[in-house]
Write a sequence for this structure.
């Protein structure tokens, strides 16, 4: 068995969070797992009576985050690994979505993750040791119509993760953006917030996309248990990467995107270079 770590995971009630927590406990690690409902807390702690530590937390509440992190550090022990997993997808044409829906998406997916990192970084920095994994998405590298603010939130987290990995490298703290493709979790099912349709102009583009996502929910290519094994594997690395893609669908789409990006930059290279000032 690998060396036992103390792993803090947000959102362990279902999906990736649940799978990673379960596999980490099986592997002998201690897991602090956050949930939003008391029944999920009981359910999580029942996985392992001595090494599963449930805490109630909504990641939108920064004050609670600080309290929970301080409390677990003194009762459970120093957090070796933070897995910022809690998040959800908002599906909606931007013109049809309210500012409140869009802000909420960023509050959870971006500011929740930042607040978690700000709570653990000072402790990890003092110890000169730590690993932060942000569960981003292939939607943080490529885009699709109808989930612009979800993609925006994930692009934000990819950028923040990569920049932060450079700030924290001198302190032996690694930051990895973990970007899954489509996986069989509750993401496109009970967790997804779908803005009701209003503007007929978008019907032709968006209705088939919404229908396809609803129909595919539960039958996606990716297996969250295999993702959990991959993530635990990463925790054993001496030099974890800044980016890890999970799933062949994500790999192909991101590669295709990078290829098109390279082609475009080459096509427009002369115009790009034309703005340099003369010396
Ligand atoms: P999931 O099964 O719906 O799990 C989402 C988890 O996040 C649940 O535990 C949920 O808690 C929690 N959560 C949501 N809002 C929260 C909040 N405000 N505060 C605290 N916890 C909150 O979906 P999942 O696919 O495992 O999602 C996990 C992460 O993977 C998300 O960041 C998602 O964007 C990302 N992701 C998923 C896919 C995919 O295809 N499944 C692909 C790429 C990225 P409740 O049970 O209380 O709602």
């Amino acid at each position: 068995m690998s060396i036992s770590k103390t792993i803090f995971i947000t959102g362990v009630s279902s999906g990736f969070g649940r799978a990673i927590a379960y596999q980490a406990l099986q592997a002998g690690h201690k897991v602090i797992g956050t949930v939003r409902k008391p029944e999920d807390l009981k359910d999580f702690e029942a996985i392992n009576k001595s090494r599963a530590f449930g805490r109630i937390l909504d990641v939108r509440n920064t004050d609670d985050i600080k309290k929970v992190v301080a409390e677990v550090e003194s009762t459970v022990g120093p957090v070796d690994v933070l897995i910022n997993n809690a998040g959800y997808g908002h599906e909606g044409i931007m013109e049809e979505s309210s500012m409140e829906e869009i802000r909420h998406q960023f509050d959870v997916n971006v500011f929740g993750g930042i607040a978690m990192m700000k709570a653990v970084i000072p402790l990890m920095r003092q110890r000169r040791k730590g690993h932060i994994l942000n569960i981003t998405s292939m939607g943080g590298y490529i885009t699709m119509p109808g989930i612009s603010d979800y993609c925006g939130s994930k692009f934000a987290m990819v950028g923040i993760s990569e920049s932060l990995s450079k700030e924290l490298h001198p302190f032996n703290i690694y930051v990895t953006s973990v970007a899954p493709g489509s996986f069989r979790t509750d993401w496109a099912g009970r967790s997804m917030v779908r803005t009701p349709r209003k503007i007929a102009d978008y019907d032709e583009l968006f209705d088939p996309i919404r229908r396809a996502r609803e129909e595919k929910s539960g039958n996606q290519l990716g297996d969250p248990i295999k993702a959990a094994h991959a993530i635990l594997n990463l925790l054993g690395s001496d030099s974890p990467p800044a980016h890890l893609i999970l799933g062949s669908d994500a790999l192909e789409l991101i590669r295709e995107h990078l290829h098109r990006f390279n082609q475009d930059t080459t096509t427009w290279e002369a115009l790009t270079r034309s703005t340099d000032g003369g010396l």
User: Anything to note?
Assistant: The pocket of NAP is lined by residues 10-11, 13-17, 36-37, 57-60, 85-89, 108, 135, 137, 180, 182-183, 185-187, 191, 220 (CB under 6 Å). Strands lie at 6-10, 30-35, 52-56, 81-84, 90-91, 130-135, 173-180, 193-194, 243-246. Residues 6-249 form a domain with the Rossmann fold fold (CATH 3.40.50.720). The mean pLDDT is 97.
